[in-house]
Amino acid sequence: MIKVGIVGGTGYTGVELLRILATHPEVEVAMITSRSEAGQPVADMYPNLRGYYDLAFTEPDEATLAQCDLVFFATPHGVAMRMVPGLIAAGTRVVDLSADFRIRDLDVWAKWYGMPHESAEWAGRAVYGLPEVFREQIREAQLVANPGCYPTAVQLGFLPLLESGLVNPAHLVADAKSGASGAGRQGKIGMLHGEIGESFKAYGASGHRHLPEIRQGLELAAGGRVGVTFVPHLLPMIRGIEATLYAEVRDPVSFDTLQGLFEKRYANEPFVDVMPFGAHPETRSVRGANHCRMALHRQEDSPVIIVSSVIDNLVKGAAGQAVQNMNIMFGLEETAGLAAPALLP
Amino acid sequence: MIKVGIVGGTGYTGVELLRILATHPEVEVAMITSRSEAGQPVADMYPNLRGYYDLAFTEPDEATLAQCDLVFFATPHGVAMRMVPGLIAAGTRVVDLSADFRIRDLDVWAKWYGMPHESAEWAGRAVYGLPEVFREQIREAQLVANPGCYPTAVQLGFLPLLESGLVNPAHLVADAKSGASGAGRQGKIGMLHGEIGESFKAYGASGHRHLPEIRQGLELAAGGRVGVTFVPHLLPMIRGIEATLYAEVRDPVSFDTLQGLFEKRYANEPFVDVMPFGAHPETRSVRGANHCRMALHRQEDSPVIIVSSVIDNLVKGAAGQAVQNMNIMFGLEETAGLAAPALLP
Amino acid sequence: MIKVGIVGGTGYTGVELLRILATHPEVEVAMITSRSEAGQPVADMYPNLRGYYDLAFTEPDEATLAQCDLVFFATPHGVAMRMVPGLIAAGTRVVDLSADFRIRDLDVWAKWYGMPHESAEWAGRAVYGLPEVFREQIREAQLVANPGCYPTAVQLGFLPLLESGLVNPAHLVADAKSGASGAGRQGKIGMLHGEIGESFKAYGASGHRHLPEIRQGLELAAGGRVGVTFVPHLLPMIRGIEATLYAEVRDPVSFDTLQGLFEKRYANEPFVDVMPFGAHPETRSVRGANHCRMALHRQEDSPVIIVSSVIDNLVKGAAGQAVQNMNIMFGLEETAGLAAPALLP
Amino acid sequence: MIKVGIVGGTGYTGVELLRILATHPEVEVAMITSRSEAGQPVADMYPNLRGYYDLAFTEPDEATLAQCDLVFFATPHGVAMRMVPGLIAAGTRVVDLSADFRIRDLDVWAKWYGMPHESAEWAGRAVYGLPEVFREQIREAQLVANPGCYPTAVQLGFLPLLESGLVNPAHLVADAKSGASGAGRQGKIGMLHGEIGESFKAYGASGHRHLPEIRQGLELAAGGRVGVTFVPHLLPMIRGIEATLYAEVRDPVSFDTLQGLFEKRYANEPFVDVMPFGAHPETRSVRGANHCRMALHRQEDSPVIIVSSVIDNLVKGAAGQAVQNMNIMFGLEETAGLAAPALLP
């Protein structure tokens, strides 16, 4: 059994890790930390876990964490970058679900996250945990930077187009929509049911923290500069991200070519489902599951390729992808703990 | 592997059976029937099942069904009562999720379901599939009548009070609320999102089909006549039933006695969770899971015991309980296929 | 024009007052106070009011408030009881939407609200603002205690039964459900969309602050002690309360008698709609409107009368009823500013 | 009083017309037709209208309709084009909320609506009912073609950019999202609460009927061909459209210039609200109201102008704009019947 610790377990990402790991055949959760809730049994805070865990939240304690085979960080940004170097030095491997190690350019990181980065060494050595791109590096990684939710949906949808060079990388648009759980579990007025229910809006349209992460990934795929506009929106629901992606082909290309390109790119991916040309993926088709489903569209006489890509922001967009990364790191079946279908309806 | 057939698989109960059985370690779904959708792959109708099933819907064919070890009926009432006798004669066992075999008094059945019953023999031999009451009989049953969703939540909440004789059975009130999936997947205007979203109402308040089923179960528990008022309500959400139950104690009784009564009654039940006195069970704490959670309340200077009981109407209220019954019938681990925690948030 | 001030205008009750008063033909809102938002234009916080108000929130200032003809208090409990005596002494009339003056027995008030009452004089002189009972007293009142949301729905539904003596007052049950806006606009984790959406639960089942207010009103109607059990529930929606009420008739009584009783009781009430026997009122049928709709039910062979009563908790349950009371106090058309139908769908 | 008839009143657009006209000071609804519901009182179908209308649905009868000053068509496409010529000949004016007269090119119309057009004459003479563009022509119009919901939100957002020539018209993207009421009130499985709730998806991404209407309007504004990609999405809520619009500026332009351009364009429009640069309009800020609110955004170092535009699809996107058009046609105050603020929360 792999001995796992979770730092910062009171948020939605933390409870989602616990939910997934509850039935993982090869994992034992040894420790879950929370400064604010230390002493409280996790099943008191999350009654869906009654009968699954006797564990209580504890104060974060590096010595105990260091005895884990793997530590997940489900903390706000700025925490992992301080604790990770010590844990790795003590022999623990880490999957960081926060943003601390996702951005290579630390000036960019500092600008968007409002503080200087404190671990340039590990920012350089972290592997970006998108298995569809970095699977081999993840196997050996000491530290995996688990991707953001929007970046996962957007990158997976754009990758085949950019890697193939079929589209012009200068005019990409990613219009993305997320359920409210993406904002975390904090007592903010703007996230009340009375504020979000039965309403819809864009937010961060002048610039969102996930934009540099998206650009970094797309530029790697394109092998050069990309021009991408990313606008997130808030959905009156809990789980799910849909990203509608727009790109212009350089030269005329047939439906079959495009569809074939995507199917081939993801043929061996256990969690990416390319639906038939013209399908419309629904977020509920991935609710609670680690899948990303996508489909292609094109409008008459138009050079624009449209990709609709859906994930569950808490699963493939966070905790599920983290477990997928753990499975890869420890040589387990990649789908272990992640085998159940989505909850529909 | 147990070979399973599903009759009437296009509704929410059918897809829920498929979702649960997709990861059941001992079951192979051999056949799923639908007259209207014959020929269509199930994963085309329910994209959450893409990658899990190659199966397509087929016309119902008794000869093929008879080769199954177990057949689930997820049909409207009136179908199972015609097909079941032949299937059982051919050696197949049956779990009927419809209402055909739940009511002992066939005059009552005929009145509420608007047609004469066509299988008095099997109505008499069917075992009512509430494992918390009839586990031993279910083991040997040829035919299990899977309980209704409301009756499951209401009976489990009232049972300890009635079995113990602590309350007056003449003045019971069951105020129950259900998500919209309980009404099935049919194109009715009254079930449109535009009609149900952001609104709430009672329905069937002058009499609902689940009332005689509830009364039958409560009278068995009480050992005599009960007076029960049952009012269902429609919630602007998809899954979940909450029943708030009101009963008056005959004599003063302490909190501890009441709590102990419930805890003892369900101590060995894998799917009934008695929460601490004063807790408020949330439907989300059982979403997608086969649990029933309940808690007790009492108001100052009042003889009224209040029980709040929650289930997922599609799981413990339908497909999950059906799989639990199958597990019992075939000597499997009772929790097989039903081990995952609820999806929260 | 009546010059109106609002104390505590940043919550949902405050914005609802502004929404209703925006088109009231006889009212000018002269002042709206908020300590925390002083200086901010109300239309910045509530963009639905852009173009309707130039007003900004100001620090509460008794001298300016005293120049108003009427002051609404939309404050947490404990504020109005301190400010009201001074304002009335200065000649201003008051409608208090908080709980400060609703309960006659100040020991009961102190127990449920956790502080001693500071204005016994005005607690005794306040008129309870349920126009269907106290219309004449409201006309002359200096101070109106606007009823709570649940108490409005529950009292209106029970009143004809208790006033007529048709039912046994010892065994009343009020099972009530409210949208999330009833909890106000504060950054509490428990009211996040991620916590409330797609879920349902009882709360306060062992005792809720609205219970003594309900009991006080029902006892007045019954002319003696009543035994009432009241359980509130939280709905995954924003606006609307439904209360399902249960009472037992003393002697057999016909449908027509019951229906006639209710129709006669409310024949001249502009905001109470008795629907035909057996109808099921929906909360959306009163969304944004000041109406209370109700209907009666009875189940076969049962002595229990069931009343389903719906209101919009922010309108008839708060701001709308407050404006109705103001209209009565100032001799205006009772429906002024409250004439628009509900927003359906 | 203007005597008004409504053809096809059972859908959401029909009830919304009734809701708005219920408090319109200058209008009397003389007739509302429905073949399927003839004889039923409108208040039985829509209980929010109890007490407002004694009217019942009637069979459509051209002779009676011809006695109205104005007839609204709230019918599926194909109905108005057959009835309108006769009504106009009889002296009645018409506002058609269906798509019959919106498209100038009747071959395009026939292709998207699947039938030949039957009134080329009136297709040529109809005035497109977007008051912000065609107010003067609407005053004198016999027939107004009321715009579609998406086209209203999209055109109002793009107009200032295209009219000014600031952006390149070849690469426009309109990513639009609508509440479920836009799909009407028909018993389709795909519009059930169980299918739509808690989920999100694109639809019609390969081509939607509103695309040619949008293109026609944008080309008129641009004075030439435009390349526009339009993808609609379905929101798990009832009312509201948000359109996020993307366009590239030809030459560098300052924030102030852009903001000033929009503010000047809509300075005298009673129902278009240009919010401050960087605001994020919420659909709830226009719920039940005839406003369109919009705001501009730009991301660092990007030539892309982002416009977020929100309307209530049933009001400014249908019935409200129809009443606005009626007000203009009859020389009434343009805001008559449309003066109330949006319902928030």
TrEMBL record, chains A, B, C, D:
Its EC number is 1.2.1.38. It is found in: Cytoplasm. The active site is at 149. Keywords: Amino-acid biosynthesis, Arginine biosynthesis, Cytoplasm, NADP, Oxidoreductase. Belongs to the NAGSA dehydrogenase family. Type 1 subfamily. Pfam families: Semialdhyde_dh (PF01118), Semialdhyde_dhC_1 (PF22698). Residues 3-141 form the Semialdehyde dehydrogenase NAD-binding domain. It catalyses: N-acetyl-L-glutamate 5-semialdehyde + phosphate + NADP(+) = N-acetyl-L-glutamyl 5-phosphate + NADPH + H(+). This is N-acetyl-gamma-glutamyl-phosphate reductase. GO terms for molecular function: N-acetyl-gamma-glutamyl-phosphate reductase activity. Pathway: Amino-acid biosynthesis; L-arginine biosynthesis; N(2)-acetyl-L-ornithine from L-glutamate: step 3/4. Catalyzes the NADPH-dependent reduction of N-acetyl-5-glutamyl phosphate to yield N-acetyl-L-glutamate 5-semialdehyde. It is an enzyme of class 1 (oxidoreductase). SMART domains: Semialdhyde_dh (SM00859). PANTHER family: N-ACETYL-GAMMA-GLUTAMYL-PHOSPHATE REDUCTASE, CHLOROPLASTIC-RELATED, N-ACETYL-GAMMA-GLUTAMYL-PHOSPHATE REDUCTASE, CHLOROPLASTIC-RELATED-RELATED.
